[in-house]
Write a structure and sequence with these properties.
Layout: E1 3-8, E2 12-21, E3 24-29, H1 38-44, H2 49-57, H3 61-64, E4 72-74, H4 79-83, H5 90-99, E5 101-103
Antiparallel strand pairs: 1-2, 2-3, 4-5
Helix pairs in contact: 1-2, 2-5
């Protein structure tokens, strides 16, 4: 049994479920599931396409792809939240994103 409806990190589909092994149960997927980053999560989730567009459009991808030298927290909103903004100006929206990225 497989389900293309079940996606993991937006890159992998479940091809076979509930394979019983000696120490548990596994599911077979069709691609390697890499460690996720803020950028990958935003790009893979249909609710965050506006955020993903801003990250790519303003060149934030290298910084937010996450390395051991770039630890941060991002506070953001979904596409619906961005729709409530009075502006669609990229610079203004990017300013909002810059203000929501906090290093730690």
């Amino acid at each position: 049994m497989f389900s293309d409806d079940v996606r993991l990190n937006g890159v992998s589909s479940v091809k076979q479920t509930d394979i019983v092994i000696t120490n548990g149960v596994i599911h077979l997927v069709n691609a390697v599931i890499g460690l996720t980053t803020v950028v990958l999560r935003a790009a893979a989730n249909q609710n965050f396409t506006t955020l993903a567009g801003l990250l790519y459009g303003k060149g934030l991808v290298p910084t937010l792809n996450g390395t051991t030298n770039s630890s941060f927290t991002v506070f953001t909103t979904s596409n619906k939240g961005f729709e409530t903004f009075e502006t669609r100006n990229l610079e203004t929206l990017a300013g909002f994103i810059f203000a929501q990225v906090l290093p730690y």
